[in-house]
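Last lecture ended with a question: if I hand you only a sequence, what can you say about the shape of the protein? Today we answer it with a concrete record. The protein is FAD-dependent oxidoreductase. Below, first the input exactly as provided, then the predicted structure, then a couple of comments.
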Amino acid sequence: MTRFVPHPRLLDSPRHRYWPAYPTPVTRNRQELPPNSAEVVIVGAGPAGLAVAAALWHVGVRDVVLVDRDGRPAGRFLERIDLLDQRVLRSPYEHHPGVEGYRDCELRDFARMHWGLLTPVERNEIRMSQAGHRSVVPVDVFAAYCQHTAELHEVPHRLWRGVVRALDVTEDRVTVRGDGFAIEAGQVVLCQGEERRAAPAEWWSGARPAGVGYWDEPVPDGVEAQVVVGAGLTAAHLVRNALAAGGRVAWVLRAESERYQCSDVNASFFRAEGRARFDGRSGPVPWADRLALMARERRASVMFEFRPSFEAAEGDGRLTVHRGAGVRSVSGGGVELAGGRRVGGDHVSLALGTVPSIGTGLLPDELVGARDGWPDLDERTLAYRRAPGVFAAGAAACMVLGPAARNLDGHRVATARVAQTVAARIRRVAHV
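The predicted structure:
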């Protein structure tokens, strides 16, 4: 049997190349505030928020306000990607923030429309996708497609920069409160994404030591020996960047070995039969079974493309991989592993994964109804059971839609349920 291992050159797609200009987006003064009322408020304009806004546009819901801390479509998502110097997405061309069931231009078609801007390697990935094989998407293509989707569905005209601090829920309204503004809304959709997972409290006492950073913080210049803690794709980018800069890397893995695979979850969870293993709409699914599946399926993994270069770097001594190594403590000079062994370096980068934002801090805890870190959502609508005017899309819906809820394709599934419910409620109110 032949094993196909993709070539690392797929990771070197160009970034920030020229793309055809779109109409100038609406630019607002930083002090300008959003309107004080709307039928729907979307909190977050990342890929999930963009998908929800586009879907609502298609079902005729146009009185929509998006509030986002960055103030541009997918801005924070792309900012994090660029911090890691990530050039391709793990998601294939089939997964994108477009709208399911409508004749919008899909991501692969958008890439083909700009064929002349693509490299031969990128063009071959499109051919692979057309043939039904695995493909990876250049970040440049995805970023341009997000802008295209935003313009097509008039998102820039509805998007304000701001930080939402709280949601006040009454029987028929939700007030979205932020710094200097309050918006009265009929319904609210939370598309907050995920935040970095903090290091365990026992790794250090007091303030975080100097010389220790997280994956979403820049690595200081002049680091020659870097320690990377974590086993996922983010850790792999940190390792690759350090090697490309001519440095030495110690890579600390809690697992016994690296886990190379195409997707971060089993492909079955992108299909209806996989979601049925979580989705109580087709019959009761025990909570314990869902937790067990999430624990098994959300394990960290790395794209196949990294493997050849990492094996070469390990072979020539530039990369040292500490497998099966639990961390006991962390300092600016390195980490101490279980058993007392010490791994030294100039800088420690922590890539410990992410945790979903589930509404805690915006909604009162009793309305979130958190259980084992997940919100209490209606499985048909993705509304909070105790706050039915508030919905969740993205990673917060994992215990309803399965682990793929945090991926781009999962956003589309969540968006379809949310948009249909929101539109139906608006029509029902209009007829009363």
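Comments.
1. The chain has a mean pLDDT of 91.
2. The first strand starts at residue 37 and ends at 43.
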